[in-house]
Every structure is written in C-alpha cells, then in structure tokens.
Amino acid sequence: MPVVVVTDxxxxxxxxVAKRYGIRQVPLHVSYEGKDYRENLDEMPDGLxxxxxxxxxxxxxxxxxxxxxxxxxxxxxxxxxAVHMSRKLSSTWSAARVAADKYDGAVRxxxxxxxxxxxxxxxxxxxxxxARGEDRDRAYEAAVREAATIESMICVSDLDHLxxxxxxxxxxxxxxxxxxxxPILHTVDGSLTLRERHRTFSxxxxxxxxxxxxxxxxxxxxxxxxxxxxxxxxxxxxAELEERIPDxxxxxxxxxxxxxxxxxxxxxxxxxxxxxxxxxx
Length: 281
Description:
globular, Rossmann fold, 2 domains, alpha/beta, 10 helices, about 280 residues, four-stranded parallel beta sheet, Hypothetical Protein Tm841, Chain: A,domain 3, single chain
C-alpha cells in the first residue's frame, strides 16, 4: 500500500473523496452537559451546535494513536503523512506530534496553517502524491507547499461565536461589531484575522467572491466552498466562481462539520483556493 494520509474531521472533505484516496480522519469533539460526541462518528442531537453551553475540543493523543497505529501498519513501511488544522486554532496538531513521536519517523505531521476545506485540500495534495507513487517525504513536502500558499476566507453573520471561543483577537471583535458590520475573515500564518468589513452580509459575500477570483487569476486552481446551514448561498457562490475563474481543476462544495459550525454560527459561507490538486477521477 502507498503512503497513508491522515487528517482530522475539520477537513470537510466529502466522504466519497476521502474514500477515493484512502484518507483517514481522526475525530474532533463536541461536548454538552458532560456528554462527549465524536465528530463524524457519533450521532448528535438536532440543534446541538446552536445550543448555549456547547463546547468543542481537538483530537486527543489517544485518538491519534488509534488511527496512526493502523495507518502505519497498513502502509507496510511506506509511512504516514498527517495533515491537521492550524496549531494556533486547535490542540489537534500538538496531539498528532505527541502520537507521531512513538513511531520513530514513520509519521510526518503537517501544520496546514488553516482550517476547513483548506485542511482537506492540503490532505488531498498529499494523498494524490502518494497515489502517484511518491514516497512519504515527497508527499509531506507537497502538503507543506500547499499549506504555505492556499487561501481561505469566510463570511460570518456576526463574531459572537468566534469571540466566545477566543478564536479572534479583541481588535477584530471591535471592528466586526461596530455598526453591525459584516466581516470577511481569513487565515494568516495559522491565525484567523479580519480581512475586510462590509455593511451587509451580501456585500461581504460578493467581495469574498471577487477576492477569490483575484487570487485565482488565470492559473489552474482548486476551489472549495463551505457553509454552515446555507446550501443555497454556497451553491450561488460556487456557480459564480465557476463562471468567473477560467481554469478550475477541482471544485468542491461541502457543509462545515459540527465543530467548526459551533465557532462560526449559522449562515457562514467560506471560499478556499488551492493550487496543486489534480482532477479527481
């Protein structure tokens, strides 16, 4: 078996895509009133993500150990590349490093420096390299390059959820709350920061689309749209991107999972632009 790629459930990859490339996922956690739910594994009550008092947590070293052990065995000596959400946004990367240390270099861990489909695209880059027969180190390097260049933006209706979880700075909170301004956030060196602010959510989404088109230019790109309970808006955004960007190699639309949804709130819509994926057959 070629190099095995592992990621975490924040990646937002459609199940059929993850299955096609054998990408394995370590679950993140949602907790409420003393009960722990593993993302993508445990059934969660309806409306849980909008319930006051709900918290989230990253994957634990034990979670990682369980997945890494099987991945290393199944790789038959070829090794594992593990791509996880930004170390500045979650403890998941640190847990992966702790677990990886037990395998004497067989597991290489990538900090995607982002979250959501940006993690998924970075994991896909590694998986496609593995599928082409690249060894563990080359698959790792391909993922690192993608993580360094991928662009990820998201529009949220308000910053209350991100403020409560401590995922944005005090300055960003003030800018976003003033006069009910609707922000566009993006990841910069692994942190979530304010990119722009607009008077209405629709204007923010329109500007996010413009920015994605500018970032893409005429080069081949992969484009992802992710959303929290806003499939119609996400569909409209993807349709416009496909019309305006001349060379889209891969286009994926996916809902945000429960963990990310707790932090961004209902109605959030994001766009990710990557550069090194090949077509998904």
